[in-house]
Amino acid sequence: MNAVRKLAKEIAQHSPLAVSGTKIMLNYNCDHSIADSLNYFATWQAGMSQPEDMTEAMRAASEKRAAEFADLKPHGSAIE
Q: What pLDDT does residue 77 have?
């Protein structure tokens, strides 16, 4: 349980969108070919990338601090 908690804390430090996207990709891969999965991933990543999250991750790493990411919006909410 300690190892699981440690891993969960590590995962929780990443961008919520990156974590959610990884879960979506892993689930998609279970039922689709490698070629379809790679195509889906490329399309999803192009449309869902968050420059703010990438900037914050790089800034936090250079400043040797934990990154602070905005929460995900609920599914179906308007994009600001």
A: 53
Residue (of 77, 80, 70, 75) closest to 18 by Cα position: 70
Per the confidence metrics, is the pTM higher than 0.85? Answer: no
Question: How far is the C-alpha of 34 from the C-alpha of 49, rounded, in Å?
Answer: 22
Long-range contacts formed by 45-50: CB under 8 A, 24+ apart: 45/21, 48/17, 48/21, 50/15, 50/17
- List, in order of start, the domains of the chain with CATH numbers: 2-62 (1.10.12.10)
Residue with tokens 């999250």: 53
